Amino acid sequence: MTIRLRGHHLLCLLGYRGMGYSDDFCVNMTAIYELLLAKPDTEIEIILGPDDVCKAYPPDKAYHCEGTVYSLDAAILAKLGLEVSERGSWQSICDRVAETMVPEDISHLCTTCP
User: Fold this and answer.
1) Could you tell me the pTM of the whole model?
2) How far apart are CA 44 and CA 47, in angstroms?
3) Taking 70 as the threshold, does the pLDDT of residue 83 lie above it?
4) Which of 43, 47, 38 is nearest to 69 (CA)?
5) What's the CA gap between 62 and 74, in Å, rounded?
6) How large is the average pLDDT for residues 50-62?
7) Is residue 89 within a helix (H) or strand (E), and if so which, with residue range?
8) Whole-angstrom Cα distance, residue 74 to residue 8?
9) Distance between CA atoms of residues 58 and 101, nearest Å
């Protein structure tokens, strides 16, 4: 099984605390989070645009999975030294974050995230 993720969701999943845009969104995000926690060898494919997390974005909210979030995706991928279409285990992504990021990066990169 491969989980398809865009750049900023790499960090969202690391900091996930069970909150989100709707109940359906939280169910989907929690399932992905718990799978990755239980099976850190799960393959991740970095993609451009809406991913496996976005597929549960509530239809009654302003859709933001296109547009301005692309710059956030790009900034996070650049910081981590990852590229679109790259594949690796979730554990390798976590290792890369631990090696590359400092706490100030989160407060800088994630300023627009609730």
Assistant:
1) 0.88
2) 9
3) yes
4) 47
5) 22
6) 81
7) strand 87-89
8) 8
9) 31
Spatial neighbors of 34 by CB under 8 A, at least 6 apart, are none
Per-residue pLDDT, 24: 87
Residue 65: CA atoms inside 13 Å, Cβ hemisphere, count? 20
At a CB cut-off of 8 Å and minimum separation 6, what does 44 contact? Answer: 2, 3, 4, 5, 10, 87, 88, 89, 90, 93
Q: What distance in Å separates the CA atoms of residue 24 and residue 4, rounded to the nearest whole number?
A: 18
pLDDT: is 37 or 62 the higher one? 37
> What's the mean per-residue pLDDT of the chain?
88
The answer to whether the beta carbons of residues 91 and 40 sit under 8 Å apart is yes
* Mean pLDDT of all residues in 95-101: 93
